[in-house]
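Project outcomes to date are best conveyed with an example. Our students and postdoctoral researchers have been running inverse folding experiments weekly, and each run begins with a structure described purely in tokens. The record below, which covers 260 residues, was selected by the lab manager from last quarter's runs and is presented without edits.
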């Protein structure tokens, strides 16, 4: 996939899934996105600059009435997540609204044919480190994701890759740095050595940033049985200090579910 070098304030237009763009902090870029699935059409205008502003809509083109659970509002979700980690950009003036995730028939709503739902949301180039503190997001590839959940468990999901370059000093370790720090731990080195001696395939999973920690995970697949050994390392996202190491064995089917 070709990468395009952006000139300051150059406006680019992208249509469809799979487009890749890079945006440095302070530059202005505009993307348009169209996606159709299961009779639902998603259209979005994404302005990338100091913040990332997403103006999106979803239209029912199925010719049928779509039922959804409206208990927590219209289930049209938009998020921006780092490609190799569960690290989400926070929204500007973000306010948490409590909503009990439970089923009540009175909460069911109808989306009529040709009806359109619109949503506008602005993301900051920051991620949550702890409940009261945010830090600058890392440079790298991100996914702007769109989803709509229907009552019959059918779900529309699509994502647009976006490369963001930050101009601020790193406040937390990168994902690669966290994985490298973890591998230097004696206990983790022993786990790798034992599984490599068995000629087992070892791979890493997406990292998770939560409560001031990076959680990095690796798995080794057994050749002679339906089993996968996992090692889970919790570490301080700033210093790299190991806070805990956990082990578990799961089936290959469970591993596939964890990767989704």
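After processing, the design step wrote out the following sequence:
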């Amino acid at each position: 996939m070709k990468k395009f070098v952006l000139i300051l304030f150059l406006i680019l237009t992208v249509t469809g899934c799979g487009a890749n763009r890079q945006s440095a902090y302070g530059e202005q870029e505009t993307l348009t996105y169209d996606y159709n699935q299961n009779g639902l059409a998603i259209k979005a205008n994404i302005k990338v600059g100091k913040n990332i502003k997403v103006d999106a809509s979803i239209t029912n083109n199925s010719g049928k009435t779509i039922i959804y659970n409206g208990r927590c509002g219209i289930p049209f979700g938009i998020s921006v997540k780092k490609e190799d980690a569960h690290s989400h950009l926070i929204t500007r003036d973000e306010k948490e609204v409590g909503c009990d995730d439970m089923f009540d028939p009175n909460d069911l709503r109808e989306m009529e044919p040709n009806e359109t739902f619109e949503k506008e949301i602005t993301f900051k180039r920051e991620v949550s480190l702890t409940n009261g503190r945010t830090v600058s997001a890392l440079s790298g590839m991100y996914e702007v994701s769109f989803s709509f959940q229907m009552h019959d468990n059918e779900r529309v999901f699509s994502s647009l890759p976006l490369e963001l370059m930050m101009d601020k000093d790193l406040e937390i370790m990168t994902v690669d740095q966290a994985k490298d720090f973890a591998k230097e731990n004696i206990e983790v080195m022993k786990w790798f050595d034992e599984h490599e001696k068995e000629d087992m395939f070892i791979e890493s999973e997406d990292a998770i940033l939560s409560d001031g920690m990076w959680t990095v995970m690796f798995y080794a697949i057994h050749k002679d049985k339906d089993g996968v050994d996992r090692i889970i390392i919790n570490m301080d996202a700033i210093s790299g200090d190991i806070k805990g190491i956990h082990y578990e064995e799961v089936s290959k089917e469970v591993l596939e579910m964890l990767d989704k």
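The two ends are 24 Å apart (CA to CA). Residues 186-197 form the longest helix (12 residues). The training component of this project remains on track.
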